[in-house]
Amino acid sequence: MTKIAAVQAAxxxxxxxxxxxxxxxxxxxxxxxxxxxxxxxxxxxxxxxFTIWLQPPMAAMEIVMAHRRNAITxxxxxxxxxxxxxxxxxxxxxxxxxxxxxxxxxxAQALIDDHGKVVMSRRKLRPTHMERTVWGEGPVTDIxxxxxxxxxxxGLNCWENIQPLNRQGMYQLGEQIHVASWxxxxxxxxxxxxxxxxxxxxxxxxxxxxxxxxxxVLAANSIISEDSIDRITMGNDALRALVGPGGGAAAIFAPxxxxxxxxxxxxxxxxxxxxxxxxxxxxxxxxxxPAGHYFRPDIARHxxxxxxxxxxxxxxxxxxxxxxxxxG
Length: 328
Hints:
328 residues, alpha/beta, Nitrilase/N-carbamoyl-D-aminoacid amidohydrolase, 2 domains, eleven-stranded mixed sheet
């Protein structure tokens, strides 16, 4: 059995130093609870720039610039400090963070092992809607899975998790434990036209990912704290009705889509914790393996940038021949 946890917490919004201190404290807490994998939400450090959904980018430039100033690098002192915290705790960590690479900022995830080493770093392939005013795009190779002592671990950010080709790619790489990193769901609560951004809609996607892929899913996310709302809305009283507080919805789902954890108060920091056994994946895949016996690559081909494993029934270079045969 492996003990895993999805974080639900409020970062020190737009403050890399403050959020780093809180990250280290949460990792230490995970270590005391013998948690082997701890997952954080989307751009946990230094926080999700919610303001870009409320104001035009130029009007929100104060927050855009704060987000840029507080972005970190994969090999910088903040990541080294988080790695040291993971080593002390004996805990693997999937961190959501804003990554700086020269003049650009990316929505990134890093998997840090229990020795403090970054074993995988990836970037969101296509930022969503307003996010494209803030973040660059990740490379095509950033559909990735890492072998760990407790299973093959991968992750996607927010609506990367609803993209069918992203999901199929992860399944074909043999993913067993998936981290779905989400922001807070405290924006636009009760607004019918924004239901797609709700906790209900996106937890349904997390459960669907687990059921479809036959894997465990840690849905980690952040909270909008009361004391950050004035800054998020830039003091605009008309916008306060559209923002939090709260929005926490951390959960863990089993390979059959079953929710393994009880809800946490949406305004409270906490961990959604579950003990998992990979044998549950074996049971799920008796019924359906979307990258194996329940996959028909001869009908709809999905080709990863790297080898996709045994589900690829024939070489990709044979595809034109197959098409000609079908048309003939």
